[in-house]
Amino acid sequence: MSDANPIETSSRDLGDLVCAAQAGSTMAMQALLTELTPYVGRLCGPIALDEGPDAAQNALIIVLRDLRQLREPAALRGWVRTIAVREAVRVARRGRRDVPAELPDVPAPGDPQLAADVRAVLDRLSPAHRAVLVLRDLEGLDEAAAAELLAIPAGTVKSRLHRARRSFRQEWER
C-alpha cells in the first residue's frame, strides 16, 4: 500500500486493506475507517440530518463488526453504502417522526438564509423520502438499485421519489 492520501486509495489498495483488516490488522482497520468515514458521513447526513453523525458512527461500527462477512473486497463501497443508508433511515426514524411535517415556514428563495433552505426542506421530509432523494439524486442509483438497497419494491421507490421531489420543489419555489 502506498503512502498516498487515503482519499486517493485505489480499488486494489482498498481490497488489500479489506483483506488485512479481515485478518485482524488494526492498522488496516484504522486506514479503512479513515477512507470510509467521509463517504459514510455524506450518505448519512442528508438522511438523518441532526442525527447524521450518530448514524454515521453506528454504520461504521457495523462495518467494522461485520467486515469478516464481506466475501468480495471489491464490493466494499456498495456494501458500506447499504449499511450507511439503512442505519441513517433507522436513526432518523428513531429520533423523529416518519410522517412529513407541513412545510409552511421555509424561507423564500433569495432570503439571506438561502444556504439553509435545502436543509430546512429536507428536515421536513420523512426519513424514507430523504433516503430515496439521496440515493437517486446524490448517489445516482437507478430505481432498481435503490429499491434493492432499501429492501422495498421499485414502485415504492418511484412513488416516494415523486412525492419527495414534488414536496421539495413546492417549498423551494415559495
Task: Describe the protein.
This protein is 69% helix and 0% strand. The protein contains eight helices and no strands. Helix 2 (26-48) runs antiparallel to helix 3. It is elongated. It starts with 10 loop residues before the first helix and ends with a helix. 33% of the residues are buried. Mean pLDDT is 81; it is low at 1-8 and 97-104.
Poorly predicted segments: 1-8, 97-104
- The total count of helices amounts to 8
Number of strands: 0
Q: Per DSSP, what share of the residues sits in E-state strands of 2 or more residues?
A: under 5%
Please describe the biggest sheet, giving its number of strands, its sense, and whether it closes into a barrel. none
The whole-angstrom Rg is 18 Å
Estimated helix fraction: 55-70%
N-end to C-end Cα span: 52 Å
From the spread of the alpha carbons, the general shape counts as elongated
Helix vs. strand class: mainly alpha
Order of secondary-structure elements: HHHHHHHH
**Integer average pLDDT:** 81
Summarize the SSE layout with pairings.
Blueprint: H1 11-22, H2 26-48, H3 52-66, H4 76-95, H5 114-124, H6 127-138, H7 143-150, H8 154-172
Helix pairs in contact: 1-2, 2-3, 2-4, 2-6, 3-4, 4-6, 5-8, 6-8, 7-8
